[in-house]
Amino acid sequence: MSDHEPPAPQDAPETPDPHAQGGGGSAHGHDHEHHGPDHLAHHFDSLEQQTEANKLGMWACLVTEVLMFGGLFLAYAVYRANHFPVFEYCHWFLDTKLGAINTVVLLASSLTMALGVRAAQLGQQKLLLVMLIATFMGGVGFMGIKSVEYSSKFSHELWWGQGNLYYPVAKKNAYYDKTVNENLGPDQPRQAWTEADRTYRIYELENYYFNYKKGVDWFTPHYIPPEYRVDPKDYAYHGGPADPPPAPAVSVTAPSASARAAADPQDDAQHAAPQPVVGLAGMTSSDIGSPAYGPSGVSTALGDVAIEGLEPDHGHRTHYTWDTLPEAERERVHIFFQIYYAMTGLHGIHVVVGMGLIGWLIFRAAAGAFGPTNFDAVEIVGLYWHLVDLIWIFLFPLLYLIH
Amino acid sequence: MRCIPSLSKPDRPNELTRTARNLPWRWMAFALALSVAWAGPALPQEAEPAANPTAAQKNAAQGTLSQPYSDTDDGGGFLGLLPEQASTYAWEVDAVFYFILAVSVFFFVLIGGMLFWFAYKYKQKSRDDLPHGVSHNTPLELAWSALPGVFLIAFFGFGFVGYMDMARDPGPTAYPVTAHAYQWGWQFEYPNGYRDSNLHIPAGRPVRITNQSKDVLHSLYVPAFRAKKDVVPGRLNKMWFQSNFNDVTAKEFVHAPKPGEPEFTYRFNEYDLFCTEYCGEKHSNMNAKVYVHTRESFDEWLRVSSDWLSTTPPVQVGERVWSSRCNSCHSIDGSDGTGPTWKDLYGQPNHMMTTGPLPGPVDAEYLRESTYQPQAKVVAGYPANGMAAWPLTDREMLGVIEYMKTISVHYQGPTLDKIEDWDTLLPPESPESLESPESPDAPEAIGGEPAAAE
Amino acid sequence: MSVLSPTPTPTDIFGKPRDVKPGDDYINHSKGLMSWLLTLDHKRIGLMYMGGVCLTFLLGGVFAVLLRTELIWGGQTLPHVFGNSWESQYNQMFTLHGAVMTFLFIIPAIPAVIGNFALPLMLGAKDVAFPRLNLMSLYCWFGGAVFFVWVLVSGGLDTGWTFYTPYSTTTSTNVPAATLGAFVLGFSSILTGVNFIASIHMLRPRDMGWFKMPLLMWALYATAVIQILATPVLAITLLLLFAERIMQIGIFDPALGGDPVLFQHFFWFYSHPAVYIMILPALGVTSEIISVFSRKHIFGYKFIAFSSIAIALFGFIVWGHHMFTSGQSVYINALFSLLTMSVAIPSAIKVFNWLATMWRGSIRLDTPMLYAMGFIWLFTIGGLTGLFLATLNTDIHFHDTYFVVAHFHYVMVGSTLFAFLGGMYHWFPKMFGKMYDERHGKIAWTLTFIGFNLTFFIQFIAGSRGMPRRYADFLPQFHWYHVISTLGSYVLAVGLFWVLYNWIQGLRKGPQAPANPWGGNSLEWHTNSPPPHLNFDRDPHGVDPYRYDDWKWDESIQGYVIRDPEKDDPAYTGADGDPLPGEPATPAESHH
Predict the structure, then answer these.
(1) How close A82 gets to chain B, by Cα (Å)?
(2) Which residue from B minimizes the CA distance to A179?
(3) C475 vs B229: CB contact, 8 Å cut-off?
(4) Cα–Cα distance between B104 and C387 in angstroms, integer?
(5) What is the pLDDT of residues B218-239, one digit of tens each?
(6) pTM above 0.90?
(7) Is A352 helix (H, G, I), strand (E, B) or coil?
């Protein structure tokens, strides 16, 4: 992100002064050089002018940033307006707790950044260094938590692009054909998904996220009391005690599914009663009996049933599941994740760039480069960092707190 | 219309279509637009056969009603600036056009004239001339800020009124046609399920077109109707127009559907239809003809055309299916296209797929699978998703297979090119259906849901 | 102006011979390739930009001539060299013609070449506010150009410069490289915009108020506003397209639940304002030239200045008129049609004000003035035909036909190219310190002007008769339009090569240019030709850029000199920065 480079021309003293590079210089006309301190560039009259110009330039860059994210927010708004059920359904898969912690971390780092700017203005070199390091650590923490979130999504196949569980099966298979199957020998089975495979995996995922993970989540209004919780161990397979689908000859589910089944032999033993419904062509989700889901299931009841101490919230009672999602919306579910990764990913890149800039400030501050008359770089990096923070403040509720 | 053999048709001289409604505009624009008159439209327009004929031309070359370059360029419009007005709302477009043209020409003459006049009149005499004029005149400037506004509001208003006529729903009496656009051609589907690569419509009745795309963006444009609508995948864009029968430019031809049956005289107008949204390699070939029939002519055409499967021998069915749906990707002369060529394909041993050669020679079973489930086996060297499933009917599929046999050196059997040959292909008990097969693997059923429902 | 008696020695603005030492002007200030490649001097960066955009203009121009040649007959005309078929070859050519011309030539042409060179000079500044960002912008441009060269040699591009989905996500050509190239070029544009905004805000002399700036500054300011507001939207659109292409994320693909029309909205939200990025600087250049060559104060300064800003702002609310036929809501279409009309008003203001400036002026038809008048001619035609496209039902007929092609070539190419060439001729003496040959300049202008109109006017009629755009082949009723258009394009090409010849001859053999050959009064004419490294020998202050009273013609040097040599140049503060009357003593404190 080249435009994040602080437009402070005084930033690199090792670069030769522009007038000096020619060597010769002319007889007159250069008597305006060096009429100020070293960090005053030749084409500015005064430090104030230079500071103002730097800040103005940075604000222009920030406007650019806002517009750039604006495009993504617009995409978000369009899809959310047109396909609200998808968004309502999907936000359950995001971890509100981690998101909230990240918000706090980023806000705190904004505070330390602001204190750092103040320290630079007051010439408190040590405090500046401490604050910059604290800010940097905030960025590290944010990215760390983010990577925890991403990796859990990755392990659940809620990933970007074709790797998303909700990606249309035909397209996913076309992708496998191009990437995997093309390299298989003629006698090796092709790797392909069936609708039934995917439905099974989706139920499994719903079970995990809706009933286990969200059950301890105090940020959602759909608080699930313990008696309504479904132990994922009991409902590892959505249809109640049952085997995972037997892998058909031509259909091999994605490796992580079988890996998980293999890793948990208890499940196999526990769900011995075979229910050979999965893997048959033409099966729809409604063919799978649904004691825990569907119109009379636990999840749907979350908003409907008056739970002691909680009023049913009719404004927000629609809680979509795979079964209750409108048919046309099912193939669009993955779009939410595409937008989610585009937005958080771009934001993450900005955080990393900001950390790079702060790291550079740390080195410069350690060398004592900043002082009461020369704090432009700290200030404009601070502006940038606040913007990154601000964008997260918008991203968090828009993505994590959808109702 | 391709089943109907070509007959000579009387050519009528092209005359300027004059409708009384837009005459005032013409006269109003006449004096002013002389300054922009251009010789182009008046130049002779010869019908040169193109070196690389379009799909429509190819059809024509094989003997059909439509001629390759029938001069549908019927003058029309003032100074030949616009094509013939062939729809009920075309005159509204033209009226607004001439109105804006008149205003534009006025301002252009004004500005251009001042430019030249000033350059001549105030030419510099001496380099030290230093004219001192007023540096601003706020009332004057406000005036020429506001003056265009009046015209602009008028343009918008007239344009809006005319546009609302285009955009409204034509009502329940409209004749419904579904336009399926694909790379690169059109399939116009009629209420009885019949599909044709040209658009035939009845005159004097509104026609509602529902645009559906099989792949990328296209746009349906009939200049003579002033009608245009994009074909957007995933959306069902609707458009409508109504064409009145133009006796002056009408064409006729006489034809008996079957030997021995009474002859019928088709009467129709002919216009060009273009794809105007860039859609890839053969975008410029993606044009077709619009035939506006009289009511009786249209009914007869639809009746005869819809019945073509039962009156056409198998090989000819296959050839027609190829030329109307497959020829944009699959060649029959061995040249490489978006898809593999059909020449010498049938019976070919060791046909190479991405997963290795086929176990046996190319046979009917393989061809069926490749049509209904193109992704199941993909020919080496071609993209896996290069082709969407085509829901051919049984008869069409059989015809295609018979046709492929005739262009393959690997097949030495008989050519089934007589109508009786259907008896050997289709057992009498098997009901023939024009409907698409109920194949769950076909991503897009005919006239069904958009691609998202696959 | 044919130079009768070339002055052998350089002179200053007083007409006195200058004592020239090596390193005096910015061109020979320092030597060696690296002193150019790593320069922070806005003038050198502008010159390097000029070399780059001229090369890409040549590339796009070659494609243009090939395109027209392909269309001189129906069917295949040119031999099939690349692509799947000759049609696909044509598609690649028009795509690359459009993409190269738009992203690499027209958008940077005036802001990055003339703007970079003239903006600090006109502001009386030593450089732009952020010289390093300026250099980075240049290298972003080179980076983007490299991507496009990569596209050229790696399977081409056949999506049209608009990259419409879903075709762009399914075609086998090198869309990822092209999107990345356009993305990088976007940064180049943004950096220039940021620089210009900060420079105009912060670097004016202390007594140059907003309304004492030359009008080119207003135009560049409006351009910069668009650049920083619209370009990031293109950037994110291209990133999404890139992700869509690489990972099939499906946001724009209906087969994956996305919406292709959303892409069109995204794309035109940038690309319509981008049209004004192309035209606004051209309007500014024309304002300068018209006034200088009429030797008369510009008429209605404030109206022209604010109309630039108005065009920039209106430009953001009209993008929907590219999608009248896409199936979006009828009322959205109506709204966009109405809003689009609004752009005509500031455009009309400018044209009328220019004419009023010429009225009773002392008009000298030198080459820059011919280009400026040519600009008015072409801009008027382009603008008026825009009315047909803004009006709803006529646009339904004209959309995606040659009418549109002709329209946007008149406004984008005709106008911008003419203003660019006019501006180059206007500032040629200042840039290089040499004069070009006036006779050749006029011949080249004549060829260019005739060629351009011949090429594109006929396309209006082809389009209104229904010829769709982006067609490799056409029905025979359109044949003669294409023949005339193609012949015109050859005339245009000859004219442009003549311009190039004229410049090169001027650079090689041109006589020494005076400091002020045209009698302009904006600050760049108050310094030597070519200017010194730091632009001015003394601190300039604001003057009325359109008041020409201080200059008189000096036949001996073929240029204008300060009327009263005893009096100091009115644009300068006294010797060694003495304060102006009523000004505080220290310049630093008084800076606005």
Answers:
(1) 14
(2) B384
(3) no
(4) 9
(5) 999 999 999 999 999 988 899 9
(6) no
(7) helix
